[in-house]
Design a protein that fits this description.
Distance between the termini: 29 Å
Strand content: 5-15%
Shape: globular
Radius of gyration: 20 Å
Largest sheet: 2 strands, antiparallel
Oligomer: single chain
Strand order of the largest sheet: 1-2
Number of helices: 8
Order of helices and strands: HHHHHEEHEEHH
Helix content: 40-55%
Length: 307
């Protein structure tokens, strides 16, 4: 929903999305290593919006499809919320990272991954590589317990940061720390840049501004999605085009880990790009009769009869 896709906020969110694709790929590789197959194209497996997160993570959180708002960014921050305070951050940054105290004690994604890792460390299962993938947006297969530990550690650090500071881990070449997802979202939400402070070993708000981008006024997608039968014909065509692409993407990803055919990853990435056209077109079309003159968005639904 950001109008200028080259804006700093758009680039930051796109970087997060690409790393989340990596996290999904590593998680799928871990499941496949145990002999499982992620049922990605199953209509009962694909997420439904608005709704809760899976796995009992932050059970009070309701996740919806919407344009960019500060409320949406705060929901993303809740999903990525670190479970411990930073030891090398200013009190101001520590306080800003605490969010809603009512969420204290809720099961976070970090806890979920800790449980998965503990099971691996206890059981030490044999790991198969025949259907795992590597390459763009995947990086590597998991062949040993150490590689499972590394994969889960990467997912956690890129999402939450380390226990010391907001960085996800130092780059092996430059030594610099890129902000973890939670703190990139905090920059966007607060409008304040975060980084290491000169003359100190602490991280905090640097004084630089992160400007809120101009966005299309996208309405939250209702439960069940926008009904193409009730929408103007051009809108209905775009909704159906996007959902056909979405169903194809899920099928390609499903078959990718079901067969180990690496070529399907390239095909799936190509399908993602075809979905951008109808999505951005929908976000520029006002919903008839909407009091706020808000616009449409894709439904992210699997059409009936999709293969």
């Amino acid at each position: 929903s950001i109008k200028d896709q080259a804006s700093p906020v758009a680039l930051a969110i796109r970087g997060i999305v690409q790393e989340e694709m990596l996290h999904m790929a590593l998680a799928c590789n871990i499941l496949v290593a145990l002999g499982g197959t992620p049922p990605i194209a199953d209509p009962g497996f694909a997420p439904s919006y608005p709704g809760p997160l899976p796995g009992g993570v932050h059970p009070s959180l309701r996740v919806a499809l919407s344009g960019l708002t500060r409320e949406v960014v705060q929901a993303f921050m809740t999903i990525e919320r670190p479970e411990t305070d930073l030891t090398k951050a200013t009190p101001e940054l520590v306080a800003a990272a605490r969010l809603d105290p009512a969420d204290d004690g809720a099961t976070g994604i970090g806890t979920l991954y800790d449980c998965i890792l503990a099971a691996f460390q206890t059981l030490k299962p044999d790991l198969a590589t025949d259907r795992q993938i590597s390459g763009p947006l995947s990086w590597y297969a998991v062949r040993t317990l150490k590689e499972v530990e590394d994969a889960i550690g990467l997912i956690r650090h890129q999402g939450e940061g380390t226990a010391k500071h907001p960085g996800e881990g130092a780059d092996k070449v430059t030594g610099k720390h890129e902000l973890a997802h939670f703190y990139r979202f905090l920059e966007i939400h607060s409008g304040k840049a975060i980084g290491p402070l000169p003359g100190s070993d602490l991280w905090g708000f640097t004084g630089e501004t992160v400007s809120w981008p101009e966005v299309w006024p996208v309405a939250e997608v209702p439960a069940g999605g926008h009904d193409p039968a009730l929408a103007p014909a051009p809108v209905a065509a775009l909704l159906r085009e996007f959902d056909r692409g979405y169903a194809l993407l899920l099928r390609q990803l499903h078959d990718l880990w079901a067969t180990g055919d690496q070529g399907l990853l390239v095909a799936a990435i190509g399908t993602m790009f075809t979905m951008q056209g109808p999505a951005r077109a929908l976000m520029q079309i006002p919903i008839p009769g909407d009091a706020g003159n808000r616009t449409y968005a894709p439904n992210f639904r699997i059409p009936e009869g999709a293969p």
